[in-house]
Structures are given as structure tokens and as C-alpha cells.
Automatic annotation (TrEMBL):
It comes from Paraburkholderia lycopersici. Keywords: Methyltransferase, Transferase. GO terms for molecular function: methyltransferase activity. This is Putative methyltransferase, LIC12133 family. GO terms for biological process: methylation. NCBIfam families: MTase_LIC12133. InterPro entries: Put_MTase_LIC12133, SAM-dependent_MTases_sf. SUPFAM superfamilies: S-adenosyl-L-methionine-dependent methyltransferases. Signal peptide: none annotated.
Length: 277
């Protein structure tokens, strides 16, 4: 990282810490959002926070964070971190809905499933069918690592793809910790599918009750752009496709601050289990 970019990054990180602490109080939050409603205030906040401000689109957020991203989703550190994950609290909610249906699930489409970490985790907790076909959708470098890992572990029923058409005919569609990294909402992805999945599992997803917008998530090891989709609209659009919400839960161990709009900060990520009527 060049010296000027490094100094700018240090300034943004320091400013973000101050805004996060100040925005936790109701007075501080109102003051920040009040400033943002004026043209001069919005310009000042935007400069101070840099890539940590909110954006209208995912593309704008991706462009802003690119010089500071630390490799993004395909970085070695990110892939290694996902490999090390075991079941987390929100996974047990997913197990609850899957346990009585898993024998009917033969084809799985795992959106943004990294190197197949969910498959390796879930097979330790659920009696997956011997003939289950588990397809992970991800980025090219991550796919290569996933295929290599599956080969080393002699796993035959784990495949990888970068083709959305593989959703067609899936019994289960999973978006666990991934939905917010796509510039198309889930209904937009599914409306092009001829044979919709019977079940949808959404887990660890930040949702808002306001308009959709984008921010940059700073995970320490990487910084990536993500979307905050409107919860009510997401559910309504999925209902329009024929789905009913059978379960919903919260993941308070996952939070997402919105520094220039503190009232839109996500205090807990959301999980949803939906079934095709």
C-alpha cells in the first residue's frame, strides 16, 4: 500500500472508531444524521469516513474500498478463516428446520459457500443422504481451492460452480453469510429459475427496515462491500414467488454498524427458513 493510501486508511480507521462510539448514544446518532441531511454536512461526513460511509449501490462501495480491501473475498486469509469455522449459534436454528426435511433433500445449491465449509460442518450434525449433490457457487480462485480441498479429502458429492443456472431443480437453496455480498437480491436471482427450490435457508444476513443501501464491512482481515436489503420487501418478494416464511431467528453475535446513519445499524443478523407453497 502506497504511503498516501496508508495514511488515508489510518485516518479513516481512526475516524470510524470515533463515529462508532459517538453514534451509540441517541444524541450522537441524531447529531450525525442531522449533519448528513445537509449538503455541506453530507460532503464532510463522506470525506471523513471515506469507504466507511454508506453508498447507494454495491458497485459504489466496491469502488471506494478497492484500494483498502486487503484482497477481498478471495484473499488467502479469508478462505483459511472459513475453513476453520465450526457450527455457530445460528447454525443450530438451521439444523432445527433441516432435521425433519433432510431426507427429502438431494440437491443443494450453496450461494457464496466458499470452499464448502457449510457442507463439511453440516454433515457432522445432519444425516445427509448418501446421494446428496451439494453445489457451491463462488469466485474462481475460491472454487479452485475448494476443488483441491475436496480432492484431498476424497469428497465426491461436493461440486463448485460460477453458474446461477445450477439453482434450477435444487431442493434446498442456502445463502448463509453471503446474500448481502451480491448486487442482486434473492428474489431477483430466483425469478429467472424455471424450477424453484423447495426450501430456502437464509442465515447470518444483515437486513434493514429502511431503503436498500450499501456499506463496507470491515472484518479486520478483509474489507468488503455489502448490501443491506429491506427485510419486509425481501419477504414480500419471496412470497410473490410462492414462498412462505416458516421460521425466523436472530444472530446477535453478528452486528454491522452504519457510521453515518446510526439508526440503520444492524444489531443482529437475521435467519429465515422459507418453503415453497
Amino acid at each position: 500500500m502506497q504511503a498516501r493510501t496508508r495514511l488515508r486508511d489510518i485516518q479513516i480507521v481512526s475516524t470510524a472508531k470515533i463515529f462508532r462510539a459517538f453514534g451509540k448514544s441517541s444524541y450522537g446518532g441524531r447529531l450525525i444524521e442531522g449533519a448528513g441531511r445537509t449538503r455541506a454536512g453530507a460532503t464532510t461526513l463522506g470525506w471523513m469516513l471515506g469507504y466507511r460511509r454508506s453508498f447507494r449501490t454495491l458497485g459504489e462501495a466496491e469502488k471506494a474500498v478497492k484500494p483498502y480491501g486487503k484482497g477481498g473475498h478471495e484473499s488467502t486469509a479469508n478462505v483459511d478463516l472459513h475453513i476453520s469455522f465450526s457450527a455457530r449459534l445460528s447454525d443450530y436454528a438451521a439444523f432445527y428446520y433441516l432435521r425433519d426435511r433432510v431426507h427429502r433433500i438431494q440437491k443443494v445449491f450453496d450461494l457464496g459457500g466458499n470452499v464448502g465449509n457449510l457442507y463439511y460442518c453440516y454433515r457432522d450434525y445432519l444425516p445427509l443422504r448418501d446421494d446428496v449433490s451439494w453445489t457451491v457457487f463462488d469466485l474462481p480462485d475460491t472454487i479452485s481451492r475448494g476443488q483441491a480441498l475436496a480432492s484431498v479429502r476424497n469428497v465426491k458429492n461436493l461440486q463448485f460452480t460460477d453458474d446461477f443456472s445450477q439453482i434450477d431443480g435444487a431442493d434446498l437453496f442456502i445463502a448463509s453469510g453471503s446474500l448481502h455480498y451480491f448486487d442482486k437480491s434473492l428474489p431477483e436471482i430466483l425469478e429467472r429459475v424455471e424450477r424453484l427450490p423447495k426450501y430456502i435457508l437464509i442465515n447470518r444476513t444483515p437486513l434493514t427496515e429502511g431503503p436498500d443501501f450499501a456499506i463496507v464491512q470491515d472484518g479486520g482481515h478483509i474489507r468488503v462491500a455489502c448490501m443491506l436489503y429491506n427485510r419486509s420487501k425481501l419477504i414480500a418478494d419471496l412470497k410473490r414467488l410462492g414462498y412462505q416464511v416458516a421460521g425466523e431467528w436472530q444472530s446477535p453475535d453478528f452486528r454491522l454498524p452504519v457510521l453515518d446513519r446510526p439508526s440503520s445499524s444492524v444489531g443482529a443478523f437475521t435467519g429465515l427458513w422459507l418453503e415453497l407453497a
